[in-house]
Amino acid sequence: MNEDMKRLEDIIAEVESSEGLSSEEKSTLLSEAVQIMKYVQDRMVQRRDYELFSRISVRLEQYKKRHQITRNLEVAENFIRSIAFNPNNNSFKLDEIQGWKVIEQDEFDPEEIIIHSFHTEADAKQKFEELYPQGADKSAMKFLIYEAAVDVSPKAGVKKQINLSNMSESDALEEIIKKGASNFVEDITGIHNALKDEEQSGVMNSSNPTSLKDAISRRLNLQERLEKIRAKHVFELLRDNENGEKYLVKRKSWSDQNMRTAGEKYEYPDPSSDTVKVTKSTGISYSRLLEFDRFLSDEMEVSAGMALALVHPKLAKSMKADPKWRKSLSGTVDSEEVDFGRHLGSNLKEMIHEMAHKGYDSQLIFKREKGSDCIGLIRLSDVTGLLSDNSYILRDESTVSDLKSLNLMRPPPPQIDASQDLSIVGNILKHGNDCVIIKFNPENWAGSESQLIAIKKILEPGYHIMTSHDVIAYRLG
Q1: Are residues 6 and 98 in the same domain?
Q2: Structural domain that includes position 56
Q3: CB contact at 8 A, 151 and 100
Q4: Which helix (H) or strand (E) holds 239?
Q5: 416 in the same domain as 330
Q6: pLDDT tens across 91-129, in order?
Q7: pTM of this prediction?
Q8: Measured between alpha carbons, how far is 211 from 363 in angstroms, rounded to an integer?
Q9: Cβ distance 99 to 149 under 8 Å?
């Protein structure tokens, strides 16, 4: 990957410095750069998935041992039961029932929005004419009256679905488990196959063909290797009976013979267990992998939110913050206070002073309203480079928007829910990210209830930043 990045840098330098390049030559170089970037991105995703697959594989065996389970089907049933109504469970669907909606603003309270739902367009138009007798032009009409989901129909299954609307809660749950567990067993097999060699699994997981010819060659080559492995096992067991007819030695006879001759190979080379079919890796979403990873831990892993709550009292002293309460960077919507994290209108001089004196390597930038989303990140190293340039004058009235106009505001860092495992944060940080945004919403908590109770005493609902300092402080503590 380092060679690819070096080549990418060479291409950028060549395009920037060579005025004599024709448009065709530039196009060729840029096409190569795009291919390299796509390849590097794919490799990073594969590495991330491989790390998660490895952890899941280990945790799977630990889980089976703790619960005295021998079959993956039983693990799958327990997992589907734990996420039966979760959006990441693809054996449970909520099919939308489309209708029409009309919006209305309360006459006495402008903050009160009323949404009227109708199953037919005619009924919706009647309500619209009642609310807006003077009508509306096209620009307003499409927002005042529109087509949208007015209800949902619960169903179980992926291909062959069963309607759950008229079932009891317990019957619906059992139907979801029955439909989902058998499919998820295949996903577990796929996770194991992703960690195996191609010749063990038949899955082309260590191949990245660069041309049509190469793709065909690699596919046929793996097919031949699989067939030769099975053929080798066949010939190890192949014998002639008294009539010269070929037969395969039975498992018991083969084992007895190996024991008598003190042979080294005690494992029966069963050709029926050898795969000769080349397949693709199982398609399982990253979010579902994370759900399975959390399930296998039996909630023994600490969440990112819990780690922040535990280290805050220790780190707050050096930052001159309240050790008993960690404020949200985005502010709380329901709070009367207007003080929250930095935005484009924040004073730049104050922000730089705070970063330098409190040891902030990175600063998140939010929209200018409480409870809003993060729109970017400022690195202290970038600010240092700017201030060392004598051509830039830092005025008292300068704002953070100056950094954006100078292209020094980076995209927002990755964001995860506070209920996710701390190990996920560690994996994100070790791949070159400065920090991770942790979103804490007590109303949408998906982790341990005992951890939630402890976290609510320390963390304000909203967005928090988590860096390597927090992870290390937690692990050392």
Answers
A1: no
A2: 2-81+179-198
A3: no
A4: strand 238-240
A5: yes
A6: 899 999 999 999 999 888 888 899 999 999 999 999 999
A7: 0.57
A8: 44
A9: yes
